[in-house]
Write a structure and sequence with these properties.
By secondary structure, this protein is an alpha+beta fold. Helix content is 17%, strand content 41%. The protein has helices spanning 20-31, 82-91, 151-162, 215-224, and strands at residues 10-17, 34-37, 46-50, 53-60, 73-78, 95-103, 107-113, 119-125, 140-147, 165-168, 180-183, 192-196, 205-211, 228-236, 240-246, 252-258. Strands 2-3-4-1-5-8-7-6 form an eight-stranded mixed beta sheet. Helix 2 (82-91) packs antiparallel against helix 3 (151-162). The radius of gyration is 17 Å and the shape is globular. The two termini are 22 Å apart.
Length: 259
C-alpha cells in the first residue's frame, strides 16, 4: 500500500536512535535487513533495506540544541502537499515539531503532534520510494494508535487532516470506547487501528508493527541482541499472534505473525 502513494496511507517509518550504527546493527541482526548510511550531509540518516528494497530508516536522536529526542518508531503518512497538509493540521489543533522540509528534492516531510500530543509524520513523495514491501514478512504491516480518550474522538483529527475512514472494527463488540479500524479515504484495505489505553499503558502514541514468521522466536532473538520484551506474543483474532519488543535504546516495535 505505501509504495503506490495512496493518499493518507502509511508510506515510511523511522526509528530515533542515540547511536545510529548500533541501532541499525540491532535491526539488521533481528530481521535480516541491511543498512546504508546516506552520509554526513544527511546527518548519517541510515536506510534499512530488505534485498535492496526500502523498509525503514534510522535517524539521530540528537537535537540542534544539544538535547536528545526519545527513542521511538514514527510512521509517516502520504500527502500530496506537505505545506498545505501542515496548515490544515494546525487548523485542526496540531502542533508542528518539524516544519515541512525538502530532502534533496526526493521528498518533503513534516513531523506534527496531534491535539492530544502524539507525534506523527507526513510525507510527500517526489522521487524516493516509501516502504516498498508493506505487509510482507519482515516488513511493516500495521500501525496502531493508543488513545488517551475515546479512539473515535482522537481519530477525527486524522480524518480531517489525512482524509481517513474510521469506524468500529468488524469484530468489535464493546459499546464503550470501541476499537477503530483505519483505512484510506479513497477506499482500500485497512492499514491500522486505534484502541483506548489500558491502565498503565503510555498514551497517546503511534506504534509500528512488523510482520514476522515467528513472533516468539523474534522476541527471544531481540533479548539475545540486547533488547527486551514489552509484551509477550499472544494469540489474537485473525488468527494472528501479536507481541511487542523494545530495542536497546528503548524504542518499542510491534510484532505480528499469521497462522
Amino acid at each position: 500500500m505505501p509504495s503506490d502513494f495512496t493518499p493518507g496511507a502509511p508510506r515510511w517509518f523511522d526509528v530515533t536512535a542515540p547511536d545510529i550504527p548500533a541501532t541499525a546493527d540491532f535491526y539488521c541482526a533481528l530481521f535480516g535487513w541491511t543498512a546504508r548510511d546516506t552520509g554526513a550531509e544527511a546527518g548519517h540518516y541510515t536506510l534499512l533495506l530488505q534485498d535492496g528494497a526500502h523498509v525503514a530508516g534510522v535517524v539521530s536522536a540528537a537535537t540542534p540544541d544539544g538535547g536528545t529526542k526519545p527513542a521511538i518508531w514514527l510512521p509517516y503518512f502520504t500527502v500530496a502537499d506537505a505545506k498545505a497538509t501542515t496548515a490544515t493540521a494546525v487548523e485542526a489543533g496540531a502542533g508542528v515539531f518539524i516544519e515541512p522540509t525538502d530532502v534533496f528534492g526526493q521528498l518533503e516531510f513534516a513531523i506534527l503532534t496531534d491535539p492530544d500530543g502524539a507525534p506523527y509524520g507526513i510525507s510527500h513523495p517526489i522521487t524516493r520510494p516509501g516502504t516498498e514491501r508493506w505487509g510482507e514478512e519482515n516488513n511493516p504491516v500495521w500501525v496502531e494508535y493508543t488513545a488517551a480518550r475515546a479512539p473515535a474522538e482522537a481519530m477525527a483529527h486524522y480524518a480531517t487532516v489525512l482524509g481517513w475512514n474510521y469506524g468500529n472494527a468488524g469484530w468489535e463488540t464493546a459499546t464503550v470506547n470501541p476499537y477503530q479500524a483505519l483505512s484510506p479515504g479513497s477506499g482500500g484495505r485497512e492499514f491500522g487501528g486505534a484502541h483506548i489505553a489500558a491502565s498503565g499503558e503510555p498514551a497517546p502514541f503511534w506504534s509500528t508493527t512488523i510482520r514476522v514468521a515467528d513472533a516468539d522466536a523474534i522476541a527471544a532473538r531481540a533479548v539475545e541482541l540486547g533488547g527486551s520484551i514489552v509484551q509477550e506474543p499472544q494469540d489474537m483474532p485473525g488468527p494472528s499472534k501479536v507481541g511487542a519488543i523494545a530495542d536497546p535504546a528503548g524504542a518499542t516495535l510491534g510484532l505480528m505473525a499469521f497462522g
